[in-house]
């Protein structure tokens, strides 16, 4: 049986050439590896339209390591962070700020609503001590696309620094430093870039990074020191994730071949269309209206049919070669299906067919959820 397709928010399905790019061992001082570091860092900054103003600093670890490195390095110990929260990843930034001892406030909206630019505007008016604002571009908890352009414009107007967790959409959703001013963007190798897990990165305004010496709460998550290391000798400060970087280098070739951010985003939108239409035909209802739905991951409401049991559903799909993801919502019971990674329309059609067959096996006639205010399905 081949590996199942991962319809999840990560780790994700990668191409065979990306996996094959890892079949070598590099020394950390190897010239070809140092050149690869330089190339990958430059390409990532270019993807964000930030090559003239920002630098890309990679960090060993999962995406959260990069978020923690960015918050700890860029928000000074005397600073104050305001986080816009509408899901688990916004909440995680609040948690990081607390653990590392940064003064942190947050503005929360419901998980099925975008963050509020108007509330942000008021908060910045009222509190001149807020130095930094953090927001999640696509909140993977639900798949919701937040209005980062409006948020960035408000931060710029108030002269506050903006940190964007663009983890789940980087490389597929447009985000350009020349149009959406930001101090830093945090992302990772293994979401829309379709590399393998093990490396996060921060694209950070060089002036802000220069001013951030000595801020960090941590030795290994000090972005300033990590950057100085790269500038001095092109090397990582500590053991580099050599194979992960090689895979990302290859994944960036594939990204460019597909037409960059526009091409990758277009494939994911086609995947989303097939998923939404196919699931709707089976009665399933997504949590979000189309206007808020990013082409990354879809949250479906749990079917009302009492014969539906998520564990059987999950197992049935797993046996048919598709891995889905439980919901992470606090507002309603749900599950999630992603449309990112090396997946195309044929895979999504296969996934929808597997859903139909699994429902049949369970004796569930429809995926329709309980209607609001209705106690009988
Ligand atoms: C995946 C993701 C992260 C990082 O999660 P890790 O498990 O640490 O890789 C952060 N923010 C968002 C929005 C994400 O989707």
From TrEMBL:
Ranges annotated as spanning the membrane: none
Modified residues (N6-(pyridoxal phosphate)lysine): 191
Cross-referenced InterPro entries: Aminotrans_V_dom, NH2EtPonate_pyrv_transaminase, PyrdxlP-dep_Trfase, PyrdxlP-dep_Trfase_major, PyrdxlP-dep_Trfase_small, SP_NH2Trfase/AEP_transaminase
Reaction(s) this enzyme catalyzes, per UniProt: (2-aminoethyl)phosphonate + pyruvate = phosphonoacetaldehyde + L-alanine
A matching Pfam family: Aminotran_5
Cofactor entry: pyridoxal 5'-phosphate
Keywords, sorted A to Z: Aminotransferase, Pyridoxal phosphate, Pyruvate, Transferase
Enzyme Commission number: 2.6.1.37
Residue ranges of every copy of the Aminotransferase class V domain listed in the record: 28-301
Transferase found in the keyword field: yes
GO molecular function terms attached to this record: 2-aminoethylphosphonate-pyruvate transaminase activity
UniProt entry tagged with the keyword Transferase: yes
GO biological process, any: organic phosphonate catabolic process
Annotated positions binding substrate: 336
Record-stated family: Belongs to the class-V pyridoxal-phosphate-dependent aminotransferase family. PhnW subfamily.
Quaternary organization: Homodimer.
Function: Involved in phosphonate degradation.
Protein name: 2-aminoethylphosphonate--pyruvate transaminase
Organism: Rhodovastum atsumiense
């Amino acid at each position: 049986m081949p590996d199942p397709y991962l319809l999840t928010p990560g780790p994700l399905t990668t191409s065979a050439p990306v996996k094959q790019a890892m079949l070598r061992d590099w020394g950390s001082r190897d010239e070809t590896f140092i050149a690869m570091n330089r190339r990958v860092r430059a390409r990532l900054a270019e993807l964000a339209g930030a090559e003239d103003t920002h630098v890309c600093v990679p960090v060993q670890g999962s995406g959260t390591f990069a978020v923690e490195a960015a918050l700890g390095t860029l928000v000074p110990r005397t600073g104050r962070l305001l986080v816009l929260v509408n899901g688990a990843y916004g909440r995680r930034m609040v948690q990081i700020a607390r653990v590392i001892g940064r003064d942190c406030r947050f503005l929360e909206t419901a998980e099925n609503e975008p963050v509020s630019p108007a509330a942000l505007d008021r908060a910045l008016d009222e509190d001149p001590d807020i130095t930094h604002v953090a927001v999640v571009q696509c909140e993977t908890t639900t798949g919701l696309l937040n209005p980062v352009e409006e948020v960035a414009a408000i931060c710029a107007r108030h002269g506050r620094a903006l940190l964007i967790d663009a983890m789940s959409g980087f490389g597929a959703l447009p985000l350009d430093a020349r149009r959406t001013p930001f101090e830093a963007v945090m992302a990772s190798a293994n979401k829309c870039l379709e590399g393998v897990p093990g490396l996060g990165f921060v694209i950070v305004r060089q002036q802000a990074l220069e001013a951030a010496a000595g801020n960090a709460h941590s030795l290994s998550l000090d972005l300033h020191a990590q950057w100085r290391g790269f500038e001095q000798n092109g090397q990582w400060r500590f053991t580099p994730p050599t194979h992960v970087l090689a895979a990302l280098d290859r994944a960036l070739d594939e990204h460019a071949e597909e037409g960059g951010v526009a091409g990758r985003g277009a494939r994911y939108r086609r995947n989303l269309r097939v998923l939404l239409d196919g699931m709707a035909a089976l009665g399933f209802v997504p949590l979000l209206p189309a206007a808020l739905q990013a082409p990354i991951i879809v949250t479906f409401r749990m079917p009302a049919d009492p014969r539906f049991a998520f564990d059987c559903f999950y197992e049935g799909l797993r046996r048919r070669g598709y891995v889905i993801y439980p919901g992470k919502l606090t507002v309603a019971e749900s599950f999630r299906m992603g449309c990112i990674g090396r997946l195309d329309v044929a895979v999504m059609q296969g996934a929808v067919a597997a859903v139909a067959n699994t429902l049949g096996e369970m004796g569930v006639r429809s995926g329709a959820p309980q209607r609001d205010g209705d106690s009988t399905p």
